[in-house]
Amino acid sequence: MCGIVGYIGRQEAYPILIKGLHRLEYRGYDSAGVALVNPDNVLNVYKTRGKVEDLERFCDTKDVSGTVGIAHTRWATHGEPNDINAHPHFSTNGKIAIVHNGTIENYNVLKQALIEHDCEFRSETDTEVVVKLIEYIQSTNDCSLVDAVRGALKQVVGAYAIAVVDCEDPDMIIAARKSSPLVVGIGDHETFIGSDASPIIDYTNQVVYLGDDEIAIIRRDAPLQVINNDNIPAKIDVQTLELSVSQLEKGGYPHFMLKEIFEQPNTIYDCIRGRIVNNDTEIKLSGVIDHPDRFINASRVVIVACGTSWHAGLIGGRLIENYTRIPARVEYASEFRYANPVITSSDVVIAISQSGETADTLAAIKLAKERGAFVYGVCNVVGSSIARETDSGTYIHVGPEIGVASTKAFTGQVTVLTMLALAIGQLRGTVNKSQLLEAIANIKKLPELIRETLKLNDRIEKLSRTFTYAHNFLYLGRGYNYPSALEGALKLKEISYIHAEGYPAAEMKHGPIALIDKELPTVVIAPNDDLHEKVISNIQQVKARGGSVIAIVTKGDTEIPKIADYVLEIPPVAESVSPVVVSVPLQLLAYHIAIMKGCDVDMPRNLAKSVTVE
Ligand code: F6R
Question: Is-above-0.90 flag for pTM?
Fold first, then answer.
């Protein structure tokens, strides 16, 4: 949700900033801009509606010189995406520029107060208020830029990650954060800023994750200084990134989404590695081992997440109840945070988030902690806000996910949640040895089963042509694969803009059956499991009403191919881990339909990868 990049050093800033914006474009792509202080200490701000490549074209004939600058790629919150609302925003005197990710909740109050002091505004954004406030404080108090930024941030209510440059002090960038992520990269005589580490990794692997209410004062050729809003120096914890540049590139695939779908045999392997031990007889998650009492004595598990992560949570909730016998509830984080939920100190709250930055999930965690719960994170991005805010947790370790539609993170989350449920079950003695060994064997087979399932790609590509006409889709599944149906529908709608609904298959007859006609394709998830016969009846119900059915079945199924219109065969897989395998054809179907429709699958309209606003 908006990407920020900054550079100060000895190289030309512009190419570094543009490359960084491309890396961060997954966070928002409705407009982009850059502010540079040129060698004559003039501040040049260029911004335009559109993607980073539009900004590059716009800057083609402009003065882009300078060794200090900040840049931004936007996902609009306040004000439509246009040239004026694009960042950077700048002060009335044209000397100070700011980029911002987040939402300033009290911007209107601050704006009215500034207007009363004759301040004029160009844009509809909340961000312009911050730079005008900094300018106002600086001019009325005759103070330094650092003090003016501090003063402004004390008045601001909301979430922010900001970077500020001032052409009167071209040897400094100020960066600050509260609830929105910001990373500072420390190079050799140069310093970088990024909303995440992806724009930094080409230059240095030494980073500092800014904490809430911290302000980084980044001076040319000087050590990094970090203070809090009260001007008290903060501890600087330099960390070494474990990220490689190749993980951030498409590696020969036309889209990140396809690359990430095909990476899944390896990402699931990485996710499992080191966590199944003692000759495959035990699950070892340090996040659980370090806090055994919290799990042994847990009276309830509450899972909070958003979007795809919530779907993974629905599967996780069932697994936890199954293997641990602890009652589990799964909540949308955005609902949980405002519901005044009953949470006690014997609850374990599990927060699931790929990015580790989702604002609603972070707020849910804070609420759960205030009420005494033990909070466990299941995140992908190492060092993210959620990973740091939770009491303990497990990374899914699937590597950077750049395609906006989540794929490998979903399968990683489900795999980790399966291991988590088993690890808690081991501790509580609610899974017996043979159950555990069987479950472990099933998990270990996943990379190979996914590899096998990926062979469906060509067939799904051909099949997809048939469905580009569709305006609606229905996805049905039961048991562990009811959430798979929800996830399949979400994948399709977010990248192809085809309306799709996921339903528990048996619920269809309670309403959605009215939608069925020959125009509505139904995807039925029907692997061989305990509910197979029941799902066959659901398919019959669709067929009896003239609907067409695409069925995902287990290889060797002799019943469903007789009645379904199209059949996608997956290898035999145990029921409890089947969502991981089933999700592969669902991801490929959404991908190919979107491609056939000419959609931009990596950057679907209106979406952003990391939702750091409410
Ligand atoms: C869908 C998708 C979103 C995210 C949701 C939560 O493909 O990616 O629905 O799952 O925004 O994001 P995280 O997992 O980063 O908290």
Answer: no
